[in-house]
């Protein structure tokens, strides 16, 4: 049972444009959400997070939006840069504090 | 962000032998450490959670006698894959968290190949 889903396995965006990565979850007990960026053969790098009491969190080029009623979150990257090309995982956490990861979306930023 | 160091980054071992992977938090006290496994093109699957000084809590389907986890100090956790077999070949990643934080930081991962 995949509690955190990223339905788009890949996304291609032109440099300078906005990248929007989506994530859906099913467990209503999740109250904290994170996005990680991962390069091949490396561990994930924390990008940005959001608590369920908020609906938006912004950090530089990265903004995460949370729609609790729809159990949906998204990561916006603007402007997209070639160095942003990587696999992005969303993750969710509840009271047990362990993270449940989505399946990842491979972002390719083209010149 | 905080630094988590994982060693080795890759290892090749013979079937039937045991392999130990270390995970260290370099600039914070890791009260909780997590061990994940990732198969190619798949998500990170949590194997176990360990709190310093306590026995690890294993996820369903993970053999605790095969994947031995030790978290004896606030800066070090180890995962030992015992009697490794080719199907254990995978990418293993640790993450660590201070009890004051909500986010966890990840090590670089270890590529294990069992031949």
Distance between the termini of chain A: 38 Å
Order of helices and strands of chain A: EEEEEEEEEEE
Count of individual helical segments of chain A: 0
Sketch the major β-sheet of chain A.
6 strands, mixed
Structural class of chain A: mainly beta
Oligomeric category: heterodimer
User: Radius of gyration of chain B over alpha carbons?
Assistant: 13 Å
Number of helices of chain B: 0
Strand composition percent of chain A = over 45%
| Largest interface between protein chains, with number of residues from each side | A-B, 21 and 27 residues
Draw up the topology in text.
The complex is a heterodimer of chains A (111) and B (115).
Chain A: E1 4-5, E2 10-14, E3 19-25, E4 32-38, E5 45-51, E6 56-59, E7 62-67, E8 72-77, E9 86-93, E10 99-101, E11 105-110
Chain B: E1 4-7, E2 10-13, E3 19-25, E4 32-38, E5 44-51, E6 57-58, E7 67-73, E8 76-81, E9 90-97, E10 105-106, E11 110-114
Parallel strand pairs in B: 2-11
Antiparallel strand pairs in B: 1-3, 3-8, 4-5, 4-9, 5-6, 7-8, 9-10, 9-11
What's the short story on this structure?
Chain A is mostly beta strands and 111 residues long. Chain A is built from no helices and eleven strands. In chain A, a hairpin with a 5-residue loop joins strand 9 and strand 10.
């Amino acid at each position: 049972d995949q509690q955190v889903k990223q339905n788009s396995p890949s996304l291609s965006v032109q440099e300078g444009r906005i990248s929007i990565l989506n994530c859906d979850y099913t467990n209503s007990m999740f109250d904290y959400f994170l996005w990680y960026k991962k390069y091949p053969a490396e561990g994930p790098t924390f990008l940005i997070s959001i608590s369920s009491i908020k609906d938006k969190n912004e950090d530089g080029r990265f903004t995460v939006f949370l729609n609790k009623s729809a159990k949906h979150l998204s990561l916006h990257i603007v402007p997209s840069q070639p160095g942003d090309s990587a696999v992005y995982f969303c993750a969710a956490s509840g009271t047990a504090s362990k993270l449940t990861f989505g399946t990842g979306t491979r972002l390719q930023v083209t010149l | 962000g905080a630094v988590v160091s994982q060693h080795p980054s890759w290892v090749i071992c013979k079937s039937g032998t045991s392999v130990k992977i270390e995970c260290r938090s370099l600039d914070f006290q890791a009260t909780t450490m997590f061990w994940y496994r990732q198969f190619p093109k798949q998500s990170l699957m949590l194997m176990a959670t360990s709190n310093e000084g306590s026995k690890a809590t294993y996820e369903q389907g993970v053999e605790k006698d095969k994947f031995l986890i030790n978290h004896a100090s606030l800066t070090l956790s180890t995962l030992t894959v015992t009697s490794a077999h080719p199907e254990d070949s995978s990418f293993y990643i640790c993450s660590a968290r201070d009890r004051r934080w909500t986010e966890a930081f990840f090590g670089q991962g270890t590529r294990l190949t069992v031949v």
